Amino acid sequence: MGSIGFPLNSVILSCATNSTKKPKGLRPSSRIGPKMTLATPTTFGFSNLLETFTVNVQRAESRPLNVPLIAPFTIANSRLDKVENVAIRVELSNGCVGWGEAPILPHVTAEDQPTAMVKAREACGFLLRTRGMTLSEVLGDIGGLLPGYEFASVRAGVEMALIDAVATSIGVPLWRLFGGASNTITTDITIPIVSAAEAAKLASKYCEQGFKTLKLKVGKNLNSDIEVLQAIRAVHPDCFFILDANEGYSSSEAIQVLEKLYEVGVSPVLFEQPVHRDDWEGLGYVTRIARERYGVSVAADESCRSIVDVKKIVQESLANVINIKLAKVGVVGALEIIEVARESGLDLMIGGMVESRLAMGFSGHLAAGLGCFKFIDLDTPLLLSEDPVLEGYEVSGAVYKFKNTRGHGGFLHWDNIAW
Question: Is the pLDDT of residue 73 over 90?
Answer without folding.
Answer: no
